[in-house]
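Q: Xanthine dehydrogenase YagS FAD-binding subunit, please. Structure only.
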Amino acid sequence: MRGFEYVRATDVGSAVALVSGDPGASYLAGGTTQLDLMLKDAVVPQGLLVDIGRLPLRGIATDGDVLRVGALTTMEELAADPVVAERVPFVSEALLAGASTQLRNMATIGGNLLQRTRCRYFRDIAVTDCNKRTPGSGCAAVTGAARMHAILGASAHCIALHASDLCVPLRALDAEVRVEGAAGQRTIAFADLHVMPGERPDVETVLRHGEMISEVLVPLLPAGTRSGYLKVRDRVSYEFALTSAAAALSIEDGVITLARLALGGVGTVPWRATEAERVLVGAPATARTFLAAAEAAIQDPFTVPGTEFKVELAKRTIVRVLRTVSGEQS
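A: Structure for Xanthine dehydrogenase YagS FAD-binding subunit:
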């Protein structure tokens, strides 16, 4: 087993100080991916591991039309929350589709937001061409097997997929994250948290070293708004999405008055389909409208032979989730 130094933090301030003061230090919460990255895959150097699992950052509270979710709240706890089930059910659906029951009882919300890509090339240290691990080395996925890779926000520099299910509805909802760091607390719009690879695929979020997510602020949908999450995958259980979509619609007299749409399984970051939303709002809730929205959502995809199928599959996923949420059958 690869060695590392372990410390259990007693409060937020000391945890932040420990990690901020050591370039090789990192946080440990549920540990469902961090330990794999360090010990099994060995793509993250071993160093100081600061356990924050017992800090008071767990719980769910309603504050007006916002749900305040502690970063150490587990996936299972959030999925089972009655306010989530009533006001943002697609969040619960995404969580339940995201992992096995055992993992959901361990994995934390903060950790889910910051999970690293499942790109097989990134996680295999025998692969030398990985700009995410070694900037400037290339991207083996572009010429290799790439079925589980991205087509939006991708480029020849990197096509690694952001694999989180939860992040998809959170992106649709314009959630925010509160973070604690050496310079104090700040709030980051969810849309700004993740960084598209560009020429620096190794930079994945805007968090500074030592910053820790303490809370996620989830806006609740207006009463009467319907939402749904659809995940298309090779097998029903314990599998990442080929494509997914989170949709929320308000419809009055057959016309869409509010539309939120985000995509998973296709983006290097959780992907908001803003062009599709523009097509939807003010239009009739019909199959024709949903097809137009799907076309608008998939603009300028970067595909390689292994990912070309995702263009059409993503469009079909969008149409299906919109029809389901709206109740449109024709």
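A: Brief note, in case it's useful. Residues 309-326 form the longest helix (18 residues).
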